[in-house]
Amino acid sequence: MSLQSSQGASFGSITGLTNIKVSGQTADPTDSSNRLDASTLDLATGSNRVYVDALPDPGQGADASGNTFTVTVQFLSNSPPAIGTEVTYGGVALVCTENEIEYAVGELVRGSATFVTKPPDDGS
């Protein structure tokens, strides 16, 4: 593993960045709670029910590959990105879903914003 400096990292057009945190997830294909009951009335009394694996559901907001990415940025500014602002980061389209500004005694004004995977256009 080689160490890499975080200096010079950027995210969209946000200035004054102090932190970028990227996380990703996808549905767990081994999740045993993801089963469908395939039992029919043909089962004899006292028989065990029949189950089949369901398709993994990555949840709302996943991209076309079933992945969900969240990027949280922190910055020194009182101008957060607007909710709904779209950014492409690492080839993934993201949309701002949350922003926050903090004014504290004896501190610089700080802000944060959260971007999540932009779901694919379903054509509707």
Fold and architecture overview:
- This protein is mainly β and 124 residues long.
- It has a domain at 17-29 and 58-117.
- Helix content is 0%, strand content 39%.
- The chain is built from no helices and 7 strands.
- It has strands spanning 17-26, 35-37, 51-53, 67-75, 86-89, 92-102, 110-117.
- Strands 1-4-7-6-5 form a 5-stranded antiparallel β-sheet, with no helix packed on it.
- The chain is elongated.
- The model has no long low-confidence stretch (mean pLDDT 85).
Summarize the structure.
With 124 residues, the protein is mainly β.
Number of strands: 7
Average the pLDDT over all residues and give the rounded result: 85
Strands across the major sheet, in which order?
Answer: 1-4-7-6-5
Count of helical stretches? 0
What is the strand content? Answer: 35-45%
- Ranges where pLDDT stays below 50 over 5 or more residues in a row are none
**What's the overall geometry?**
elongated
Order of helices and strands: EEEEEEE
List the helices and strands and how they pair.
Elements: E1 17-26, E2 35-37, E3 51-53, E4 67-75, E5 86-89, E6 92-102, E7 110-117
Antiparallel strand pairs: 1-4, 2-3, 4-7, 5-6, 6-7
